Amino acid sequence: MNPMKHTQLRAFVPIICLLAVSCACSDGAKEEFKPVDGGGSGGTTPAEKVVWHERAYETFGAIDRSYRVSSGATAGFYNENYPKGSGDLSASYLWPYDGLMSGVALLNKLGYDVDYKAKVDRFQAYWRTSGLVGVGGYGSQTNGTVGGGDRFYDDNSIVGLNLVEAYRQLKDPVYLQRCAAIVQFLLSGEDNTLGGALWWCEGQKNKPGVDDSNKPACANGYAQWFLTSYYDVCPDGEKAGVLALAKRLYQWEYANLRDPEDNVYWNSKGADGVINKTKWTYNSGAMIAAGVRLYRITGEDHYLKEAQATADGAYNYFVRSRNGINLCYPLNDPWFTIKLVRSYIELEPYHKACTRYIEVFVADLERAWKDARNDRGLFSEDWSGKNKNPDRDKSLLMQDAVLESLGTIALYKGEKK
Fold first, then answer.
1. Is the entire prediction scored with pTM above 0.85?
2. How far is residue 366's CA from residue 44's CA, in Å, rounded to a whole number?
3. Fewer Cβ neighbours under 10 Å: the N or C end of the chain?
4. Quick check: 20 pLDDT over 80?
């Protein structure tokens, strides 16, 4: 898992790990997928037509009402939690804002007016020109004007993915310039320790015995996803360097963090060389997406075959019968799971098994709408609705996951406003 980036979320690590263990183990035999319409928790009747983009926009409205900061230096940004905690900063950390923007971009693409450009441009309030490596990058927090806190390589790549999408939708070359700056920040995080790859955080490089000093799947996988996305739109003079970096990171992660038994990716390799073998949905998702994109760019078949193997391995590892539900994805960390599902959508044209993998997620999402949504239109982390966690349920990131999921499925099904 991506190590938690600030005090509030770090406090939940033991809870997450316990949930992850329970989610990785079946509480029943592996069963054939049955559409949720057939009955049980969260089903729809045949006469009930789901319009996913309407649900996405309704969810955005609930988030906006509950989390948006209305006054002060951070007006227009969003709070970390609802209700806001006594120790919360004046605006959310970068990670939740990143997650929100992934969903907002989908709504804009679907045809909704969500003040997209202004929200994208607020990323710049997280930008820090100063840092340990002498290269600009996005910090983990903001006062509404400039960035502060630590600078994480995975966070910067996820911002980069959002900026590539902003360029595609808005056609403003300033977003390409910002992506080019992220590439330079990523390069500053690469070294030859442990054979290559990126560290997790600018300030936690090569410190054996320190848990946060590691080269993780999240930093390296998301860098590849960003780089291979940026490659499609970047100036010709940048393409060779962008592709070379993506390939180096892919080769390292494939060699160092892939479990050869099932092709699912482990969490990280520490500065002491010890591998953390925890598995999280989004790490495999990033490598699937990177493999598909590298195949498209290079035409090398092995990238596609490796993506297909990880897709099957991740489905078989993560999807289980739980809490009386026939089959479902893990009941914790839905933001992680939507990243895996988005990679399945990228792979689907080359791997038809992904259609089934996506259908299971759609059933999860329908269940969440019916069973895990409260009277404010906000969602529990656990989409079965059976396990409440007041601390994590109030997190903006959990709402981001639902928004991004609804928007993703709306586009997947060809909907438009």
1. yes
2. 8
3. C
4. no
Q: Got the DSSP string for 84-137?
A: PPTT--SS--HHHHHHHHHHHHHHHHHT----HHHHHHGGGGGEES-STTSS-E
Asked whether the predicted pLDDT for residue 244 surpasses 70, the reply is yes
Both tokens assigned to 91: 């605006």
The pLDDT value given to residue 200: 98
* Greatest CA separation for the chain: 60
Instruction: Name residues whose C-beta falls within 8 Å of residue 206's C-beta, 6 or more positions apart in sequence.
Output: 191, 193, 199, 213, 271
Confidence bin at 195 (pLDDT 50/70/90) = very high
Distance CA 271, CA 60 (A): 40
The angle, 0 to 180 degrees and rounded to 10, between the axes of the packed helices 301-318 and 334-347 is 140
pLDDT for 16 beyond 80 = no
183 pLDDT above the threshold of 60: yes
Does an H or E element contain 328, and which? strand 325-328
Q: Which residues pair with 147 in a beta bridge?
A: 142
Phi, psi of 45 (to 5 degrees): -85, 155
The enclosing H or E element of 251 equals: helix 236-257
Q: Residue 381: phi, psi to the nearest 5?
A: -60, -45
Cα four-point dihedral sign 263, 264, 265, 266: negative
